[in-house]
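User: I'm curious what two different proteins look like when written out as structure tokens. Can you demonstrate?

Assistant: Sure. I'll show them one after the other, since each token string lines up with its own sequence. Here's the first protein:
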Amino acid sequence: SFSLTEVAVFIKRLRRKTDLSNMAKTMRTVLNSNSKVTVLRSDLHAVIDQGFLDVPGNLFQKKFRNPEELQNDIELKCLNDLMSLLAPSTDIRVLLNCMSSNLEAFVIQPSRSKEEFRKLASDFQLRWNFLLSAVSKAMTLNYADSFG
């Protein structure tokens, strides 16, 4: 018999797979539409270039413009790389591979132990979620056409 913990973990994994599958379907719909991709790119660049992101000391803009410093902020580099690949008819696997390569280079390879990996991974996830929330908030507050 299974413990409740094993069942809970299994259910969590299933939910995650379902969420990822739904996100992939949504992204494919966006990526297959020239107008949607164009508007999304334009809106992303607008919130960044105009400094609308709610990040302390406008850290995002300073880092975004300096490639050397960008290396120190993995999540900013990941967003920049994804935006550079965002084009009509981009295969979603290209975006996933880009993210995967960055995580391999900046989170997995630098980890010398399981504990260090956990720390680097959780730090990245926290900052990535914070950054995406800031982008989403900026797009909402500025009535970006692509939001939603």
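Here's a second, unrelated protein for contrast:
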Amino acid sequence: VFPSLAQAQASVANEVYQELGQPSVFLFCPTEYCSSLCSPSPSQSCYLQTIGQELLPGISVIWTGPKVVSQELSAVLLEEVEAVLRRRPVIWDNLYANDYDCRRVFLGPYMGRAPGLLARLHGLLLNPNCELQANFIPIHTLGTWFQSELGGCAPPDRAGVEAVAALGDSQGAQGGSYSPQEALELALRDWVAEINQQALEPGG
């Protein structure tokens, strides 16, 4: 029925999106969702070019970066992806994911993401560790990174203001500067306080 996989996927996604009344959040994960899966590159991928052309503009596209698990995300790469998709991507960040190897757990701070990255994104999802308690530092330091990014960007919309308020004043770097080491120290301080509080509770 369709001349290509990309056209088939875009057609089905568009139809579902319209049938649901064009919701404000509708995510599409392409078959080529990182640079290493693109042939020969994101900007020259016939698949991504078709997705960018055919997918309705209100549909957001998920991207994981250079690889499935990306150590770094750069503004240059995101500009390339935005150009071919004709929209800013939603990053599905697998930095902490360990569902592919549960013997590994990354407990370090959110890092390897270029300053000013938020302006190039339509959204960011963090794929966590499988172990619930091991996600305190990842989520805490992501919050600090997010606050520092908003500090270096244009004034956020109302949703952004509320998100920052929910993080708490003590967690954020000011003025758009983010230090992974400082973020880690803030997270460890709050984590120890939470562990101590839980220890005092009945059955703790």
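A detail about the second structure: Confidence is low (pLDDT under 50) at residues 154-175.
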